[in-house]
Task: structure prediction
Amino acid sequence: MRIVRRLLWYFAFFWALVLSAGTFIQYLSFKHDSFFLQIKQHAVNTGWYLPAFYCHIFGSSLILIIGFFQFSKKVYSNRPLHKLLGKIYVFGILFFGAPGAYVMTLFVDRGAGVFISFLLQNTLWVASTLAGWVLVMKGNITDHKKMMRRSYALAFGAVMLRFYIFLFNTFGHGVNFEHNYLIIAFASWVPNLLVAEWVNRLEEKS
Result:
């Protein structure tokens, strides 16, 4: 079981690093000529989309890396560092990542099912993050850790979304094939939550 957790750890770190680094490299110039923004020209022209987009992608990229190391024993044992990174993580989600995602969700053009998936994911992300913050403020460390695992599992949905898009484009019929994007939308975060619950149960038994 320890080997499985270690493999999940390395998998998560690799893809979180790839997504975060790739995001900064691609969008730090703030040019609007990327393929994604080109297909979102209608949304961009509203004036609402770009600020939300940049808040979400840069905020979430930082959150993914910070959140990952929060589960490291070395970081966790360094209480001042853990608290500082935790505050950045929560602040980044509540004021950058999640608000940006809500605005972007309004411009989803993949159907009602995909819209519902992203809206539900983002709402659960905010709720679990807030709950984790409240729990630690009350001194309930055990439940705080469980809730923050759920929060990070939902944050990691951004990584899995792009991972599945890569798989579907490389080995399948692409994301535009009927129902494929709907499958990807839910697959990007629902299994993550199940893994988080599995880890939480393992911790309860140990």
About this structure: The mean pLDDT is 90. Residues 2-205 form one domain.
